[in-house]
């Protein structure tokens, strides 16, 4: 038979559903139409084919032999059509967020708080790339980045930089070590502790100089290349570490470290990096808002 001579697909669906369900009530529910609409489709199909497909009784419709035969033949065909459509149906793209941050920011600020962001947005896949290198935010695949800059304003082609906060540094130590200094330690008292350096000796030099104390020439100093490692060492009583007002909040709130002095010295700044030429996708935009609020609120 030519396809041009095929009856209405809607009517064929009505017959197949009615035969498979044994009546028009469930067929109508499946097709999302009224019972009367199913009955009309069946009459139209009978007229198109010139054969009786159902016997109409007082309470229900019963398929005839021809109706059952045609309905049974249509079931695998409609199943095949449904499978073919599903195979090519475009599914919603999975929302994802790729963030590039300094390792210290990842370990001391982001990861301890990331659960709150993920609970608010459970459908977003979050990828954190902890690196000291500035990722290519302009071209992707990184959506946003956070960078710690010591001097000046950062620049990179195709990137927008927004200062999140200054890094105001102060000395801290484990409670047991801090207790050895008494209730109100001076900067000179702090200088006599073993000093843990995480970025060369300059940060401690800057803080001690601002406090009016000559930096000591310590033998056997501990130098680490990441603040996260320096904080871990300080928590274990290895010496005093320079925290900042952004990354030190978690250790102080948990009581693992205590501040040794109210004096703070600005040594660097934290910057949010976003692409300048393209708008942020929704997950990245919401992450940037959450990040701003968290840092501004000291969370």
UniProtKB/TrEMBL annotation:
One of its GO terms (biological process) is DNA-templated transcription. It comes from the Bacteria. One of its GO terms (molecular function) is DNA-binding transcription factor activity. It holds the Pfam family LysR_substrate. InterPro entries: LysR-type_TF_proteobact-type (IPR058163), LysR_HTH_N (IPR000847), LysR_subst-bd (IPR005119), WH-like_DNA-bd_sf (IPR036388), WH_DNA-bd_sf (IPR036390). Keywords: DNA-binding, Transcription, Transcription regulation. Belongs to the LysR transcriptional regulatory family. This is LysR family transcriptional regulator, glycine cleavage system transcriptional activator. The lineage of its organism: Bacteria, Pseudomonadati, Pseudomonadota, Alphaproteobacteria, Rhodospirillales. Residues 7-64 form the HTH lysR-type domain. Gene3D superfamilies: Periplasmic binding protein-like II, Winged helix-like DNA-binding domain superfamily/Winged helix DNA-binding domain. It comes from Caenispirillum bisanense.
């Amino acid at each position: 038979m030519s396809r041009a001579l095929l009856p209405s697909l809607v009517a064929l669906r009505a017959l197949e559903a009615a035969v498979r369900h044994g009546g028009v009530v469930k067929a109508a529910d499946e097709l999302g139409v009224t019972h009367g609409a199913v009955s009309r489709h069946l009459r139209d199909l009978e007229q198109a084919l010139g054969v009786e497909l159902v016997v109409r009784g007082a309470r229900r419709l019963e398929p005839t032999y021809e109706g059952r035969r045609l309905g049974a033949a249509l079931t695998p065909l409609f199943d095949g059509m449904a499978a073919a459509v599903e195979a090519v149906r475009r599914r919603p793209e999975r929302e994802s967020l790729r963030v590039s941050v300094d390792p210290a920011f990842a370990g001391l600020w982001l990861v301890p708080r990331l659960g709150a962001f993920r609970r608010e947005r459970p459908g977003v896949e979050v990828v954190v790339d902890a690196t000291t290198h500035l990722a290519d935010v302009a071209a992707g695949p990184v959506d946003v980045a956070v960078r710690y800059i010591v001097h000046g304003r950062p620049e990179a082609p195709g990137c927008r930089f927004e200062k999140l906060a200054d890094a105001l540094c102060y000395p801290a130590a484990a409670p047991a070590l801090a207790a050895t200094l008494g209730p109100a330690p001076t900067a000179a008292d702090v200088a006599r502790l073993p000093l843990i350096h995480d970025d060369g000796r300059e940060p401690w030099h800057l803080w001690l100089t601002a406090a009016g104390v000559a930096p000591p020439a310590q033998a056997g100093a501990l130098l680490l290349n990441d603040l996260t490692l320096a904080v871990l060492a300080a928590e274990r009583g290895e010496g005093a570490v320079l925290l900042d007002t952004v990354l030190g909040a978690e250790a102080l709130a948990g009581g693992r470290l205590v501040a040794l002095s109210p004096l703070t010295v600005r040594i660097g700044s934290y910057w949010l990096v976003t692409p300048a030429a393209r708008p942020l996708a929704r997950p990245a935009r919401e992450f940037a808002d959450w990040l701003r609020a968290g840092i501004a609120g000291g969370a």
